[in-house]
Every structure is written in structure tokens, then in C-alpha cells.
Write a structure and sequence with these properties.
With 417 residues, the protein is α/β, with parallel strands linked by helices. The chain folds into two domains: 4-25 and 284-405, no CATH class; 30-278, Alpha-Beta Complex (Spore Coat Polysaccharide Biosynthesis Protein SpsA, Chain A), CATH 3.90.550. It contains 16 helices and eight strands. It has helices at 4-26, 53-62, 82-92, 106-116, 135-140, 163-184, 199-204, 215-225, 245-265, 274-308, 318-327, 331-341, 349-371, 376-383, 385-397, 402-405; strands at 40-46, 69-76, 96-101, 121-125, 129-131, 148-157, 194-198, 229-239. An eight-stranded mixed sheet has the order 3-2-1-4-7-6-8-5, with helices on both faces. It is globular and about 70 Å long.
């Protein structure tokens, strides 16, 4: 008979090795760049962004940068007041230009802007994001290295009193930490919603494609295929994130499917070199891990409820609430460790592996929270992160396998709230 704890122990052991490798890589020295700035063109693709576009442009205008530049906004088929706002801004600021396009989609909107840009360094950001004052300087530094074709930034969520934004901000920190690890070994290829490019290199690989839902990862892989470097900077941008469960589901299903699509599309790069196999292989492993782990962990939680409570007629009482609180928060592992040390539970391999993994997970996450400037809301989200992580893993993982056998897709705009 299959022992679920043995399977979980194996999965925990694999994660344990991954966390150890991440911490070791984190301690490696990071490449430093001298300052040599060029004129830049900032590109903003926009579709129905009347609520955000003015703040986004204003943040760019106020950002520090030693060279003059231009801002190009592509108003891609907006049906709200986006065009009117852009007309008013462009009258006040001659460096701001905008073009109207007929709902081409984000990827093609960016491609349209590339051909309008007058400068070699292009900074692309989402229309619902606000750059920090030193963002342009920091994202431009790595271009001192002539082989760097693209540079990513750090994405943070705009925090509100909606707890969903707290969890997503922590999620973005964890995502940025993974890109930071890949950057340390020159294996980065993920370029999220704040990125800079060399125009000539971007044109060389055909710009952005529309055949996946993750055009940002896809373009990074196309550049890596040409042996160009993709770097990560400390430039920070804060972006609007979904504030409803429905919006989060739509966004993460899109991300999950897009990730699988680019792995499938660029499978020939999987064994490009050992470092790249490590990076791309880890991304693919998460799909396999979640596919096995999520059903097992949900079964363990629900079977425990039925065995210890429901079968005895205790459907809802204080002990039931305490049981689920333990499962759905970091308190559960602390309680599990205490009860094991006091001989209430057996000191077996399952516990040892799970406890060491928990300690390494906290250590790594705290290191990255300090690295990317955490706040108190991040700590609250971390304490209750388990149910959120299970939820987003479900909606990102299982729909993604639909794309293993599916044919071509066309990436169009999709607003999530």
C-alpha cells in the first residue's frame, strides 16, 4: 500500500535541497556594473487605464535620470477616457508622446512602440504601475556590459486595506527572489512587468510574440537562445494587483498556462548549459511538485478532520477551529514540533524532513524580505501564507497542463481587478 507520508517526505527532501541551493547561491558575489548612462525611451502599453495612466506617467517624469528621454504611450483600443488624459498630458510635457492603435494586444502594442522609439535603451512598464525615483537609474546600470540585452526590475504590489494585496506583495517578493537567484548564476530569463531592453537586440529576436500568455518569459528565452545576457536590477516598481478572488483566479490561470506554454515552446533550451538546466528545470519541477503535493496535503488535512472530529459528531467546535488554524498558519508547524519534542508524536523521518524544510523556508524568506525591504504586512501574510499558496498553486498548476497538448493561442489584453 502507498504510504502518503513517504511521498510527502520525498517531496519535502527535494524542496529542502532546493532551499539549500538557493541560500548558497544567494551568498555568491553579485556582479557589479559601472555607471554609463544612455538616453532612454520609456514605453507604456495601455488599454482602458484612465484610473492609473496619469500617476504612472507622472512617476516617470519625476524619476531621476542623468540623460534626457522620451515617453511613448500606446493607447491600444481604449474605450474609456485614456486618450483624453493622454492628450492633456502630452500638451504639458513634450517628451510624452502617444499613439492610438486598434486593440492589437499588449505584445503587439509594445512592438508598435519599438519602431517609434528614438533611443537604443527601451524601458517597458505596465500602465498601472508606479516607478520609484531611482528606478530608471538602477534598471539602466547593467547595460554597461555590452552583452546584456535585457534587465528586469523588482515588482511590488500596491498595498491597500484588502488582505489579498498583502499576500500578493509577498508573492512578488518570492518571485523576485527566484529571479535574483537566477541572476547570480547568469541564468535569468524571466522579465516581468518592468523591464529594459537594447532596442537592436529586441528587434533581432523579433520583438514580443503573441503565441503564449507569458510574453515576458518568452522574450527572455528568445534572447538567451541568442546567447545574450538577461540581468536583474534593484529597480522597484509598485503595481496594481487583483483585489477580488475572481480577478486573482483569472490572472494566475493565465500565468500558469503561459509558463507551461513557454517551457513547451523553448524546450530545446532546457539543456543549453548546466546553469540554465537548473533554472528552467526548477520552473518545470514546480508544476510536477504541485500536481503531486496538493492532492496529498489536502487529503491529509481533510482526512484528519473526518477521523478526529466529524466521525465523532464534532463538526464544528473550538477544537475543530484550532485544528484548521494549525493547518492554515505557521503556528501548525510550531505546534507539531513541540508535540514531537514532548513525545506526543513520533520523531520519524517525515517530521525531521518537514521541520528542517520549515526552518530553511523561513530563513530563506526572511533573507529575501530583508533584501527587498519588507513591512509588517509581509510578516502577517507570511504567517498565513500556506492556504494562499495552495490556492494559487491549484489555479496556476492544473489549468497549465491543458496547454501541453493544446495548439497555438493568441495573447490579447485581459484586465483583472
Amino acid at each position: 500500500m502507498i504510504n502518503f507520508n513517504d511521498i510527502l517526505t520525498f517531496l519535502f527532501f527535494v524542496l529542502l535541497l532546493l532551499y539549500i541551493s538557493w541560500i548558497i547561491i544567494y551568498l555568491l558575489p553579485r556582479k557589479r556594473y559601472e555607471e554609463k548612462f544612455q538616453k532612454i525611451t520609456t514605453i507604456i502599453p495601455a488599454h482602458n487605464e484612465e484610473e492609473n495612466i496619469e500617476k504612472t506617467i507622472q512617476a516617470i517624469l519625476e524619476a531621476k535620470y542623468p540623460e534626457d528621454g522620451e515617453i511613448i504611450v500606446i493607447n491600444d483600443g481604449s474605450t474609456d477616457n485614456t486618450q483624453k488624459i493622454l492628450e492633456e498630458i502630452s500638451k504639458k510635457h513634450t517628451e510624452v508622446k502617444f499613439f492610438n492603435t486598434n486593440h492589437l494586444g499588449k505584445a503587439n502594442a509594445i512592438n508598435f512602440a519599438i519602431n517609434k522609439a528614438n533611443n537604443e535603451i527601451l524601458v517597458v512598464l505596465d500602465a498601472d504601475s508606479e516607478i520609484e525615483k531611482d528606478g530608471l537609474i538602477k534598471i539602466s546600470k547593467p547595460f554597461f556590459d555590452s552583452n546584456v540585452a535585457a534587465v528586469g526590475g523588482v515588482i511590488r504590489a500596491k498595498l491597500t486595506n484588502n488582505p489579498l494585496t498583502w499576500f500578493q506583495d509577498l508573492d512578488y517578493v518570492i518571485s523576485s527572489s527566484w529571479r535574483y537567484i537566477c541572476d547570480k548564476i547568469n541564468a535569468g530569463y524571466m522579465l516581468p512587468g518592468f523591464v529594459a531592453f537594447r532596442k537592436s537586440k529586441l528587434i533581432e529576436v523579433g520583438g514580443f510574440s503573441t503565441d503564449t500568455f507569458s510574453e515576458d518569459i518568452d522574450v527572455g528565452l528568445k534572447l538567451k537562445a541568442k546567447n545574450y545576457d538577461v540581468a536583474m536590477s534593484d529597480a522597484v516598481i509598485k503595481t496594481e494587483v487583483p483585489k477580488t478572488i475572481n480577478g486573482l483566479i483569472r490572472q494566475r490561470m493565465r500565468w500558469g498556462r503561459g509558463g507551461m506554454q513557454v517551457i513547451k515552446k523553448h524546450k530545446n533550451l532546457f539543456f543549453k548549459n548546466l546553469k540554465f538546466t537548473y533554472a528552467m528545470g526548477t520552473q518545470f519541477y514546480w508544476y510536477l511538485h504541485c500536481t503531486i503535493y496538493i492532492p496529498l496535503i489536502l487529503f491529509s488535512m481533510l482526512s484528519g478532520y473526518f477521523v478526529y472530529f466529524a466521525d465523532k459528531g464534532n463538526f464544528l467546535n473550538f477544537d475543530v477551529l484550532r485544528y484548521f488554524f494549525s493547518w492554515l498558519s505557521a503556528y501548525g508547524m510550531i505546534e507539531y514540533a513541540y508535540r514531537t519534542i514532548t513525545n506526543f508524536y513520533a520523531m520519524d523521518l517525515y517530521f525531521i524532513t518537514a521541520f528542517i524544510l520549515f526552518v530553511l523556508y523561513l530563513l530563506y524568506t526572511f533573507i529575501m524580505l530583508v533584501r527587498f525591504k519588507f513591512n509588517a504586512l509581509n510578516l502577517i501574510a507570511l504567517f498565513f501564507y500556506f492556504p494562499y499558496s495552495i490556492f494559487v498553486s491549484i489555479i496556476q498548476t492544473f489549468p497549465a497542463f491543458y496547454d501541453v497538448l493544446k495548439g497555438k493561442v493568441y495573447n490579447r489584453w485581459e484586465k483583472v481587478k
